[in-house]
Design brief:
about 400 residues; alpha+beta; Butyryl-Coa Dehydrogenase, subunit A, domain 1; Butyryl-CoA Dehydrogenase, subunit A, domain 2; Butyryl-CoA Dehydrogenase, subunit A, domain 3; 3 domains; four-stranded antiparallel sheet; about 50% helix
């Protein structure tokens, strides 16, 4: 299948990446180019106006994008997560997010407003208050962090908690999954994104103070805690898989740069290129072996996720949490190690701000902050094997 992103487009994105990083600027020109290429509708079915790419195909495209412009790829990733959820539901006969798929194909930009300071429950709970409006809709009040695409999103997926009070006898707390619009207001985006890496993503803090979702944009009301609702499964699997592809792309590029450095640098001791140094050769081979394993994992899981919509024997149910959380941790940890080894091969020039590999070193660190964390992934796996803690 022909890639959505041409080599020429990717080259221009790589050129801008250093400028965005230097200026701590949003990737506005990149976003415009990606929209023009139809990339925001990559996973939207063709019948709904999109390119019809599978999760597996989109993961590979995201890795290609990340190898050229990691922060751009990370921010666009959060849009793709929502499209992935819509596609996950659509393929399983649930049309509740078909409106999102159509809007993504028409150019709307989706943001992911779920992360909160101090909330290690992630999808299982929320510090944000969801207040019912009496007509099936909700207003949201709370603070969201790491909201990628902050300068550009037009639709923001949010999670809040309806405590079940307000005089409604017998009402139980419910997690409210919904979407608010930029034009609807009721929020403030803080200009607080000044980080060491992934700078162009401009994943700023969003303060919700009455942002309103009408009834037709309230997608799920679920009890707090674990859930096998397809909506939750769609969010979790799409997020973990697509995030993994971003960091796999960073590692792919780091390996390329290490090979280039080994071919370019010459040892004063031996008079030979470092590509002829046995230690350097082994280090690069270790990097490549690790990346080969990463792509076997991404391809295997995405292939099964795509096919499980029509083949129930491939549906792992609750096992998807273990599979995709583990994937995210293994890929991001491998990416950090690969970039670190590339820096060692390439030498002290990577310590300067103008070095692409030095920028990748800063960008790849962000992988440890995305859910699932290393600790939560281990807890998920332990529960799958040993049952819940007593």
């Amino acid at each position: 299948m022909t890639p959505l992103l041409s080599d020429e487009l990717l080259a221009s994105l790589r050129q801008r990446a250093a400028e965005y990083d230097r200026d701590n600027a949003f990737f506005a020109e990149d976003l415009a180019d990606l929209q023009a290429a139809g990339y925001l509708g990559a996973m939207v079915p063709t019948a709904l106006g999109g390119a019809g790419r599978t999760l597996r195909e989109t993961a590979h495209e995201q890795a290609r994008l990340s190898a050229h412009a990691p922060a751009t790829a990370l921010a666009v990733n959060m849009h793709h997560v929502w499209v992935g959820v819509g596609r996950y539901l659509h393929d399983r006969g649930d049309s509740s997010l078909d409106w999102l798929l159509r809007e993504a194909a028409s150019g709307e930009v989706f943001g992911f407003g779920y992360s909160e300071p101090g909330n290690d429950l992630v999808l299982l709970g929320s510090r944000t208050e969801a207040r019912p409006d009496g007509a099936g809709g909700y207003s949201f009040h709370g603070r969201k962090i790491f909201t990628s695409n902050s300068p550009a999103w037009t639709r923001l997926g949010v999670l809040g908690l309806d405590q079940g009070s307000n005089g409604r006898r017998g009402s139980e707390p419910r997690l409210v999954h919904a979407f608010v619009t930029r034009e609807g207001g009721g929020f403030e985006i803080l200009d607080d994104w000044d980080t060491i890496g992934m700078r162009a993503s401009q994943s700023r803090t969003t303060v919700l103070d009455g942002a309103h979702a009408p009834a037709d944009r309230v997608l799920r009301l679920l009890p707090p805690g674990p859930s096998l609702d397809p909506y939750v499964l769609g969010i979790f699997t799409s997020f973990e898989v697509l995030l993994s592809s971003v960091y796999a792309g960073i590692a792919d590029r780091a390996l390329e740069l290490a090979v280039e450095a080994a071919e370019r640098r010459t040892s004063m001791k031996t008079g030979k290129k470092y590509a002829q140094d046995p230690d350097v050769r082994r280090r690069i081979a270790d990097m490549a072996l690790a990346q080969d394993s990463v792509w076997l994992q991404i391809d295997g899981i995405t292939r099964d996720l795509d096919a499980s919509a029509s083949d129930s024997t491939l549906d792992r149910g609750a096992g998807w949490f273990r599979a995709t959380a583990g994937l995210k941790v293994r890929v991001t940890e491998t990416a950090r190690e690969v970039v670190d080894q590339a820096v060692r091969v390439s030498g002290g020039s990577t310590y300067f701000n103008g070095s692409e590999l030095g920028r990748l070193y800063r960008d790849v660190l962000a992988g440890i902050f995305h859910p699932s964390s290393d600790d939560s992934a281990h807890a998920t796996v332990a529960q799958s094997l040993l049952g819940p803690l007593e």
